[in-house]
Specification:
- By secondary structure, the protein is an alpha/beta fold.
- It is built from eight helices and twelve strands.
- It has two domains: 121 residues, Response regulator (Rossmann fold, 3-Layer(aba) Sandwich); 92 residues, Arc Repressor Mutant, subunit A, CATH 1.10.10.10.
- A five-stranded parallel β-sheet has the order 2-1-3-4-5, with helices on both faces.
- β1, α1 and β2 form a beta-alpha-beta unit.
Length: 229
């Protein structure tokens, strides 16, 4: 992980400089682009291990960049962490639905940024599933080995985080998970998080599940559980 290549796509020079400075401290190799167009060209020249993507970009927007990258077979596996201003919740949800792995809100804390990048790189390099047993529940099929979900034989495309949340809860139906328990299981105890970031992931998961969203139940004031009946 120490020599990972990270592409930063950010048009604000000051913010980009802050990101570059903090990520270089971790020993990662950093590439910079001030627009999505330049970022795409850099990816074709040198494929990064992760993209740190600003959503509000001139020209091609961050969401359009994410949509384009995830449609390209050679590059769709590259993790994307979105950087968004507060109040862009709709864009965050859209980005997660398009396949982005995570997000950081501006203004961000450098330690939080580094932790999220480190967690995304760790997930990318972790090829061993936590549990390879296929889960089949009322038309829902979860295949950890292939990282695939089907509902009534129709494939449901989920991000890594959405898949893990669904898998973890489905393995213990009826068990109530707090937001912090979910984050600790998925990313580790050192991952900075707020209640809202987990809620955003759940919103994206439910939308993608469609009618199968009935399995994800909110326990008010506590967290979430998988309701198989």
């Amino acid at each position: 992980m120490a020599k990972a290549k990270i592409l930063i796509i950010e048009d604000d020079e000051d913010i980009r400089a802050l990101e570059v400075f903090n990520l270089k401290q971790e020993g990662w190799k950093i590439y910079e682009a001030e627009s999505a167009e330049i970022g795409l060209e850099q990816i074709k020249t040198s494929v990064p291990d992760l993209v740190l993507l600003d959503l509000m970009l001139p020209g091609i927007s961050g969401l359009d960049f994410c949509r384009k990258l995830k449609s390209m077979d050679d590059y769709k596996a590259i993790p994307i962490i979105m950087v968004s201003a507060k109040g862009e919740e709709a864009d965050i949800v859209s980005g997660l639905e398009l396949g982005a792995d995570d997000y950081v809100s501006k203004p961000f804390r450098p330690r939080e940024l580094v932790a999220r990048v480190r967690a995304a790189l760790r997930r990318k390099n972790d090829s061993v599933p936590a549990d390879d047993q296929i889960l089949r529940i009322s038309g829902l099929e979860i295949h950890p080995g292939r990282h695939e979900v089907h509902y009534n034989s129709k494939k449901v495309d989920l991000t890594f985080t959405e898949f893990r949340i669904l898998q973890i809860m489905a393995q213990r139906p009826g068990w109530v998970f707090t937001r912090y328990q979910l984050v600790d299981i998925i990313r580790g105890d050192d991952y900075p998080v707020t209640d809202r970031s987990v809620d955003v992931q759940i919103v994206g998961l439910r939308k993608k599940l469609g009618k199968a969203e009935k399995f994800i139940e909110t326990v008010r004031g506590v967290g979430y559980r998988f309701k198989s009946n």
